[in-house]
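Standup notes
- HV: blocked on the assembly model, inputs below
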Amino acid sequence: MIHDDEEARRLLCSMSLGYTAYHVWATQARRERKYNIARLLEALSDVKRVRAERAFRTLGEVGKTLANIERALAGLEPETVATGPVTGTGVLSRELMGRAAHALSEGRDLTAEELDDLYVCGSCGELMEGVPPASCAECGTVREGFLSFRVAEAMGTLGPTNLVRRLEQAPETVRALLADLDDELLSRPVGGHSLKELLGHLTDMDIVFRERAWLILEMENPRLPAAHPPTLEKAAVYRNYPIGDLFDAFTNSRRQTLNLLRGLTPAAWHRTGYHAIFGTIPLTHQGNWIVDHERGHLIEMAQIRHDLLEQRDQQRPIVLPPHLVPEILEGE
Ligand SMILES: [Zn+2]
């Protein structure tokens, strides 16, 4: 029993560290737009998470919530133990990462042909590639209990209703992010990019997405154009445009995109196109692509706005009337 506990503690440490490592690496791969490699790393991080959780339960650290909260407040202090290597420990995971290393040596992402759908057993963390078996070969858990990392969902798992809602919300979000900023601030780069060029870039990408969506809806499994959509670097020119024009261009483009998508049947959303990297993918994949891309840049724009306002207020400090100060402090 003592020996078992020791092994469970070693597993908890090893798997927790492995989970964190793969999870952060997956986030970084997405940032570098290596979406299939990110999908692989996300699957590997869940392999570790499932196993860490199992070890944690084995150690008797999970009781009723009341006891768990008490335990948490008391300060859970697991013994740290030597773990050995925490990543690259499985035969299949090493093989898949070998494929990723090969693709990266050619300066590209893995293609869908090179990395099939992945599944992770939700009970034991067994990793599987391709069509999943009816049950886990390791522990017998049925297929319904597997976590999936499918090519079609590599961009995200939002369905049509949520996708349309996010696309609808973006112009209002953009309007709020631009409010009360003068032209100089809107053109001023913060961390490399200005709000104007980011907005111009969002329009460029909306047009690429709409073209692809139109092809998918109008043709039988079309080859999707432009493996290289317009980059942010090409958007620097928008710094010299009037903000009104940039905002109108975005809202007009988005209106056309929504006109194309509104009222589509589920079958229409599952029509497919062929993408050089992702293989045959449904319209929902591309919908998640544009929404995910936009979300990243909207966060970036919110940060730039925050930094710009801070810079402006440092130049012209707002002096509060003395009687207001205590009220604000009390409002904390
Ligand atoms: Zn299993």
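- HV (later): unblocked. Residues 121, 123-124, 126, 136, 138-139, 141 surround zinc ion (CB under 6 Å). The longest strand covers residues 118-121.
- Next: hand off to the docking folks.
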